[in-house]
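Onboarding guide, step 5: your first structure request.
Type a short instruction followed by the sequence, for example:

Predict the 3D structure of this protein.
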Amino acid sequence: MLAAAGVRGTIAATLNAADPWGFDMDGIPGAVFHAVAEGTAWLCPPGHPGLRLLPGDVVLLPTGAAHVLASAPDTDAVPFDRAAAQRALAAGEELHVGCGEPQTRILCASYQQDPAITLPLLSLLPDLLYIPAARATATLGTTLRLLAQEVSQPAPGSAAVLNRIVDILFVQVLRTWLTTAPVPQGPSWLGALADPIAGPALAALHTEPGRDWTVASLAAATGVSRATLARRFLATVGDTPAAHLTRWRMDLAAQQLRDHDDTVAAIARSVGYTSEYAFSRAFARSRGTPPGRYRTRSRAAAQVP
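The system replies with structure tokens like these:
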């Protein structure tokens, strides 16, 4: 699900700051990620008390909520200059802030979910995910060190390497959060992953979307009765198995239409439709446009800088 959801990250900045300093992070699209490599910083999001970040701490704001990142809670903050940060990255340099000897080094990134995917992911997460260094797994710590090393020693291909490391970090942060935080409240596919009945059913649907699933066959694969599966799936996911499967199939088809040159008939078969006509009708109901027209529009939109 994480792979198909297409959550992709890019390095936004490497801050090398001398006290006092402060940035008002507002208007950043997608999710925002900060990792403290050296020194300390304060994260002050609206509606939350200030959070002191220490070396090795990471935070993820899944909806990109406005926040202040500063050397102290009462430090005056200036708008974050994204253009200056991008110029520094392009030149293989850090963004220097303040005067004097830098005390703090922070790696900042942003994440976007593939617009072809309608199943939510980032919006299901809490406003703020905070993982202190003491709670980070060994693999998360290793990845953070690798990221810091790549930033401090840029080489040919560093941009591509950095973005892939950032993608790995997202999975590791989410994995750490899922194993240490309370299950998300309310019906959702993300919260249902921890359910002993709905979780395996979701895994089956996501792994084999082209299979001719019925409630009976899904219940058999899950090891429960049809009535138990139907009741539990609706309560935890918030949808029926058939509706969830259709949505998942349409998401995968939308990705394939945009990114590949397979025929509509071939894509229909890959997501479980034996009839191209039935698939086209289902896709048009889901996306408001036929598959061929969707392919043309989505590819044109992807080319817009």
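Each response can be followed by summary notes, for example: Residues 273 and 279 are 6 Å apart (CA to CA).
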